[in-house]
Specification:
120 residues, 6 helices, 75% helix, mainly alpha
């Protein structure tokens, strides 16, 4: 059975929300000093990339409305396959510079759907 495309948007939005929660009131120095925080942040970015990659496979038109989708998926691949050489500064930059805009887009896309019709 095919998963509802909105479920992937929800997954990505939830991961973005967790990233914001995990890093609230944190500095880059805090991020670098906390292995658990880095691991948690990288995992949530992996989820975002995987969810949006799956979305692109089942609803290319909807996925195309997510800016930089290919770069988001590529970032996920770097985190998973290049785990030994992850650049903390790059992760922090994406977190602080790109994540708020992505979260806004995901909310806007989800708002276009009928709220009474929940995804499965």
């Amino acid at each position: 059975m095919r998963r509802d495309p909105r479920a992937y948007l929800w997954d990505a939005l939830r991961a973005a929300g967790l990233l914001a929660e995990f890093t609230a009131s944190k500095s880059f120095a805090d991020y670098q000093a906390d292995a658990m925080l880095r691991s948690a942040a990288e995992r949530q970015f992996e989820i975002i990339g995987e969810a949006l990659n799956n979305l692109s496979k089942i609803d290319a038109e909807l996925a195309a409305r997510v800016p930089d989708l290919r770069r988001i998926v590529a970032f996920r691949n770097i985190l998973i396959h290049g785990y030994a050489t992850v650049d903390d500064a790059l992760v922090w930059q994406v977190l602080t510079d790109k994540l708020p805009g992505l979260e806004r887009v995901l909310r806007e896309l989800l708002a276009e759907f009928d709220p009474s019709d929940q995804p499965t």
